[in-house]
Each structure stands twice: as C-alpha cells, then as structure tokens.
Amino acid sequence: MIPFYRPYYDYRELLAALRPGPARRKFEAAVAARAGARYGVAFAYGRAGLVAAFKALGVTQAEVILPAYTCLVMAHAVLVSGNRPAFVDIDLADYNMDVGALKRALSPRTRAVVATHMYGYPTDVDAIRSAVGDERVLVIEDCALALHPLLAGGGGLRGDLGFFSFGAGKPLTIYEGGVLVTDSPALYEQIRAYRDREMHRASLRAWAVRWRRFLSSYLLSSRRLYDVLYRPKTSAEVNRKFQMPPDYMPPDAAVALPHFQARVGLAQLHKADQIAARRRALARLYDQALDCPGVSLAPIVEGATYAYYTIRVPRRDEINFEARMIRRGVAVDRSYHYALPYLAAYRPSARGEFPNAARAAREVINLPCYPHLRDADARYIAASVLDAVLASKI
C-alpha cells in the first residue's frame, strides 16, 4: 500500500526528542523569525491557540468570517471561544476565500476574518485586508496546511496573527501542537499572558501520552512499519471525527507544549525548504502524468507548497473512487468532505448558498504528496487515477 501520508522524520527528530533541556521559547522564536514576525506563542494544539487568541483579545459574542470550505476545527474554535462563525464561498481556482463574497459578508458585528491558505495555496491576504478596511477587525492567517510563509521569499506574515499547526498530517509535524505569530507587541503580550495564566505544565501522564503519540508517528515514518500498521478508516470512523459537541476540546488542550515536542519542531523547521521543494516537484510530476478527461487537476500556483495534490473527481462517491484506489494499493483522502454551512452545528450561522464549497466537498480527492514519495510511486498513482475513473465508466 502506498500510504496517503508519512511524516518526514529521520534520526534527527528522535535525537532532538531525547535531548534534555528547555526549548519552547526557542521554537516560538524560530517559527516567528521564519514567518518574518517578531513574536511567537506555542500551544499544545493549534485550535487551543486560536481559542486562546480570541479570549485573550476580548473577541466574544462576535462574528468571525471564515471560508465555507475549510477544516471543521477552525469553525469549532470560533464556537468554543463564544463567537459565531460567518461563512463565505471559495474560488475553485485555488480553494481559497472569494474576496468578493467576503465584502458582502462583512457586518458591524465582524471582529475577525480567517484567511486560510487552503491546501498550501497562498491566499491574497493583502486583498482581504483591503476588503475588510477596518483596522479593528483582526485578519488571522490560517497556515495550518501552508509552508510558504516560513520560506525565504514566501511573503511571511501578512495578517495581524498567523496560525501554524504542526499536528499529524501537516507538512511540518510534531504530531500535536501549534504556534501563533504576530508583529504586534500588544497582541503578543495579551496572548502570552493568557497562555501562561491558563495553560499549566503537562502532568507526567499527559507528557507520557504525548511521547507515545510522537513515537507512534515516528515509527510510521518508516515505509515498512507504515505498511504493517496502516489501516484505512471506515466512513463511520471518519464521520464520527466531525461530530464534536460545540464545547469539546481535547483533554490535554490546556497544557503547555512539552519541550521535547518543541525540539522536534526545531528539527522539522530545518527541513522546511527541502520539504517544500520536494512537494513542488511532485506537483509538477503529477501535473504532467495525470491525463484524465473529466478530472480537474490541482492548480499549479506561484508560491504553493502542496500539502496534498488536490484533484476533483465528479461522481467521486458514486463511483467509490477511494475504494477503487485502495484496491490498486493507493491510499487517498477526501479530507474535508463537507461544506461547513451545511453541517447541522453551523446551519444556523449560514446566510445564502455556497455552491463552490459544496462542489469541492463532493468532488475533492487528495493524492499523496510528501517528501518520502518516489517519482515511480507518483506515476503509478497517476495511472491508478486514470484506471479508476475509466473503470467506473465500463
């Protein structure tokens, strides 16, 4: 089985995890510097950082605008922080927020806009800032799937806050954790003070659980072990993941990021340019190898870092595309198989229709695109896509 995702670890991450000593502040500073910002604040989970930012900055009982097609965790963090999500449709050219739709969604209750770099495609943060107009409205860059703000020449931080996730499945990973970055001393002091007041040191049990999860992730970086341990999730398992109660947070969300994970993060940051270069090379290979009528290929966009190679397959679920690929020995993923405004928890917040988000939710398939992936495997995956689509028409 060609896995959908493998963390890009080697001996350096394990040695870093085993090395003693504090590293959280160094990790925060390194992420911020990479993003061209002055300050960073680390959290046990990316979503915990976002909730902390809203609470620390007094954003409550307000509207937070975000794309209708993005990770559920973002909208969930808005709810948990005591706010109301407001949605705008996306542009299918790059799966990012439609700036024209954003202008129509703004209201006097808007206190923040989440500018997501979906799948690693850069969104035009300057255009979003211009559309917002009001400096009192926070522009938060969601860089959970994006590497370009951390690369030389990648543009760096453009919003008031930048939100980086290093969770499982992200381009850079420490299995769990996130960092908020900002150029504003005032925002930094408020968020850091809230974090230091509300987030306690991890207990021995919580620390051990995180070590176990990291070690499992490390073992999965080996192709042979991944083949033994990997088990495709059933549709029921996937669906349960996205049925969180409105007030749910992970049990250890209120702990400070352990130092061993910060050291792993520093090792990962050193590989950022290498990881981005390989993902871009694989995207170009897919673009040349995938000649499949009716399948929309991933946009080849300046600055994109391709968290996945994202295609759209009409009738994806009707033809059981994922199952057809698994039978060919390829694990693929539809990641966000929902448009947020149409989920029960967020339907009361939805105004209007979101046709592009709905279409992406119905059709998107993400192909493996990680540094371990060999060119020969990528060509086999491309051929398997063609076979799966054509076989469905027989």
Q: Briefly, what is this?
A:
The chain has 394 residues and is an alpha/beta fold. Helix content is 41%, strand content 12%. The chain starts with 10 loop residues before the first helix and ends with a helix.
Provide a descriptive summary of the structure in words.
The two termini are 25 Å apart. The radius of gyration is 20 Å and the shape is globular. The protein contains 15 helices and eleven strands. The protein has 394 residues and is of the alpha/beta class. It is 41% helix and 12% strand. Strands 1-9-8-7-6-2-3 form a seven-stranded mixed beta sheet, with helices on both faces. The protein has a two-stranded antiparallel sheet with strand order 4-5. It has two domains: 11-198, Aspartate Aminotransferase, domain 2, CATH 3.40.640.10; 271-391, Alpha-Beta Complex (Aspartate Aminotransferase, domain 1).
Q: Helix count, per DSSP? A: 15
Domains (count): 2
The 3D shape can be described as globular
Order of helices and strands: HHEHEHEEEHEHEEEHHHHHHEHHEH
Q: Identify the CATH architecture of the largest domain.
A: 3-Layer(aba) Sandwich
CATH superfamily descriptor of the largest domain: Type I PLP-dependent aspartate aminotransferase-like (Major domain)
Distance between the termini: 25 Å
The total of beta strands comes to: 11
Unreliable stretches covering 5 or more consecutive residues: 234-239
Q: What is the CATH class designation of the largest domain?
A: Alpha Beta
Structural class: alpha/beta
Task: Calculate Rg over CA atoms.
Answer: 20 Å
Helix content: 40-55%
Largest sheet: 7 strands, mixed
- By CATH, the topology of the largest domain is Aspartate Aminotransferase, domain 2
